[in-house]
């Protein structure tokens, strides 16, 4: 039983040929091919393209004058070899800085794990890219442990069923792949994000000609400092997703993005959605909860919104606060805007924010305008549980036999090679 306490970051049960390549360039380059179509002498009169390494890459927050844009011309677009493309991808990665580091990625398309961020890419003809036919989920990594992986994985597979995507692996193999990807990353604190897509195949609307569904996973280490200071939220004017799509964790996040941008434009952290009946629903990627004046923890029902794994765990942990007399009860029900704004405490809950105090909603100060004691108590309970590591076999995220996974990946790679020869 002692092996159950070994963090993923300290295990080394990698497939031999994966671990032999620190950059995994060999595995990836064997699966890269670029057709030479002879596109030459193209004129771009209004777009500045960073073909030269000396050109600075501008991000979306930077602007160019109309004179600069109109005077820029590219008369000859280079035709690149696969080696040149990989090198330019790597150079492009080095030109911008991010608080997030990508430590490892698994792709069923190239059948392995890479630790080189420059080649953590997916095919453009993957239907998740151009049709939004994909689902995803995430799990936090704390002290080398994956937190509540099984709960997130179950939701992940439910979303796949609703999206009519048949996974390329069974549940146990998928779980092993995810764990092994985290192991390869050696991440101590971060997050694991993973996707199921209809897969690459063509640019049609129907996925009927997709060769096979695809599984992708990436380990992210966020270097941003933890921040649990109270935040401001606003009411979103962006229409909420219909329940059929809101309860599914799909990649169709444009409403969520627009809602987040709307909040940022108002110097707020997030925007709160209301359902079609005017009741409080959720944030763009988190649930919301309140502590009423009667000291009850109330949370909107999950029948029209995403069933948050962290939110459900908070409901369980809150039972301890009821026993300690800090709460009088816990309810999951419809919550009106008026009731929410008049609450003593308000909080956002999710795998990213964990439990984040809200001190202002629109122009209304929540409670006394400070982080509430119940909110902070719930945050501490979540953090303590995450840091304590697994306590049962169901939470075990290490010491896994990978023979089945290795066999499946080998068969998949051989199948892909056969299709390439055909």
TrEMBL record:
SUPFAM superfamilies: D-aminoacid aminotransferase-like PLP-dependent enzymes (SSF56752). InterPro entries: Aminotrans_IV, Aminotransferase-like, BCAT-like_C, BCAT-like_N, Class-IV_PLP-Dep_Aminotrnsfr. GO terms for biological process: amino acid biosynthetic process; carboxylic acid biosynthetic process. Its cofactor is pyridoxal 5'-phosphate. Transmembrane segments: none annotated. Pfam families: Aminotran_4. It comes from the Eukaryota. Keywords: Pyridoxal phosphate. Belongs to the class-IV pyridoxal-phosphate-dependent aminotransferase family. This is D-amino-acid transaminase. It comes from Forsythia ovata.
